[in-house]
Amino acid sequence: MILRRWARDGIDLRAPVDDEDRRTLLRIARNQAPSAIFYCLQGQISVWLISVFGNAQRVAEIGALGRLGIIFSVIGSVMTSIVLPRFTKCHSPRLLRRRYLQIIFAFAIFGLCLILGAAWLPNTLLWILGAKYALLQRELLLMMILTVVSSIAHTMWSLNASKAWIEYSWLNIPGTLLTQAFLLTLLNVSTLQGVLWFGIFTNVPGLILNAALTIRGLRAVRQL
User: Fold this and answer.
1) Does the residue 165 lie in any domain?
2) What does the pLDDT look like over 49-83, one tens digit per residue?
3) Which of 150, 209, 213, 215 is such that its CA lies 20 to 30 A from the CA of 55?
4) 6 occurs within a structural domain
C-alpha cells in the first residue's frame, strides 16, 4: 500500500498488464515460494533439536553464541543496499562471472577473519556475552563457522534470485532433509557441539545447488 502511494505520481496505475511480464513474474514467484517457506522453518531446527534432546541451558548457550553472528548483519546490509542492485543491472556474461566471484570471495575473506578471530581471541569475544559463557571456546569457533557458511550460502541464493536463476531451487528442500536425516544417525545432537556441526553440514546441499544454479544461469546468459 505504501509503495502504491509512492508510485502514484510517476506510474499510470490504469495501464494494461503486459502478459509476458506477468507470466515471468509468476514463474519467478512459483520458483521462489517453496524455498522461502522452507527457509522460515529451517532456521529454527537447531533450537528445536536442543530443546528436544538437550536442556534449557543449551538453548540459552546457542542463543547467546548466535548473537555474535550479528556482525554479519553489517555486511549483509551493504549487500542488500548496494551490491545486489548493481549485480542485477549487470548483463555482460564475462563481467557477471567476475562480479559473482568477487562478491563470494569478499564474503569468504570477511568470514575467514571472523573465524580466525574466534580461534585466536575466543576469551575476548566470550567476554562480551558474559562470564557464564567463558568455557564455550570450541563452541564459539563452530558457531562462527556455521555463521560464515550460512551467510555464504544465503549470499549465493540472493545473487541467483536477483537474476532469476532459481528454476530448480526446490531441490534444496529434499536435499537438505535427506542430509539432516543422515546427520542425525552420525551426530550426537544432545550436545551443543553436535547441533552446531549439524547446522554446518546442513548447508552443504544449498551450497552445491546454488553453485550449480549459478553455472546454469551464466551459461544461459552467454547463449543470449
Assistant:
1) yes
2) 667 776 666 667 777 777 777 776 777 777 778 88
3) 150
4) no
